[in-house]
Amino acid sequence: MGGEVMLYAFGSNACGQLGIGHENDTSTPQPCHVLDGWQWPAPIDRIRGGGSHTLVLLESGDLFASGLLSDGRTGLKSSENSVAKFHKVPVTALGGSQVKLCAALWEASIVVTTNDEVYAFGLGPKGELGAGEGVHGISHRLDRFWPREEHIVDLASGPSHAIVILSNGDVYGWGNGRKGQLGQPAEIVWKPRKIVGLDFPVVRAVCGQEFSYLVSKNDEGYHVVLGSDKWRVRLDAPAPILGWEHLSASWGSIFVTDSSGELHAWGRNDHGQLGPGHYPGPLEYVAAGSEHALALTSYDNVVAWGWGEHGNCGPDLDAQGDVKGWSNGIKPDTFGKASKPMGLAAGCATSFVWTQLADREPPPKLPFEGATAST
After folding, report:
1. For 325-335, what is each residue's pLDDT tens digit?
2. 153: which strand partners?
3. What is the pLDDT of residues 282-302, one digit of tens each?
4. Deepest in the core among 9, 14, 78, 248, taking most CB within 10 A?
5. CA-CA distance, 195 to 181, in Å (whole number)?
6. How far is CA 120 from CA 48, 101, 105, 129, 141, in A?
7. 204: which strand partners?
8. pTM for this one?
9. Which residues of 223-235 are buried (b: 16+ CB within 10 A; e: fewer)?
């Protein structure tokens, strides 16, 4: 599909992390600024949101960042404390290579280049940079910690720990592992350490605040949760999920969509994080932020639920600032009538939707206002 690529954002924005040209929160999706306009130079591959910064990785391998700059977490060099527009991270900070994977932690960022080199930026008080104790700042290249014959196929992070998966199914991690989210012994892991004792080759991972969720190939369905069980993410984990399509995790919850469009969600739910259970169509993708989630349906509808105090779930909230027991529809006219939602991302009370100008008529959309609570 051809056509211009646009990115829209809403939610928490005190440091300009939404990239919408100012530093005010918004509950209505606004177009993100990039380069000298709003149109992105290539399709978006993924977006990762940290404490007060955001990373946007394009399919071309170019990496863009916005938000807080002062501690080096974005890889951008500037005299400004923060930027409210997306700027390209220079390849000089990445050994001259393009990027294939990225992760945003609370005060840091991790990227993996197409040359299979790992770089870390920002602060690492609990080992988040993986470069040793007391290391902070811009562009630290980690020493190679995996066998030469293998390559990195996935990268995931929580607020203070990171996970990488190798082509042979081995898993390495670093950062805050005090709850066992990086395996045993449960401690701060200052440099990448292999997670041992797993019963299957791992192909994907997502991370919460104090846990890591690891899965096998989707035709096998094996999975395991490492770390804290404060929100019953281990105890309430379902039987093996065959045919999983997408994984996501909030700080205290796990979300898995399968090939039938069904959502498997468990964990923390005091703000309605797990969703209402009824949606305007089968779910194709769910993106979880710190305590909220966005979903894209097969009818191209975008809905949001969970903790929405900063506007990250849209304008309609209950008295506690939540979208609990229902889902808010993000109206399609927000993105332009000829545009098709292509992807979603959620960060720390931030929400992102990217669209592409459609070259065909989209499928009919179900009514947005009919997303009711399940009982």
Report:
1. 999 998 766 77
2. none
3. 999 999 999 999 999 988 899
4. 9
5. 9
6. 14, 12, 10, 5, 7
7. 215
8. 0.93
9. bbbbbbbebebbe
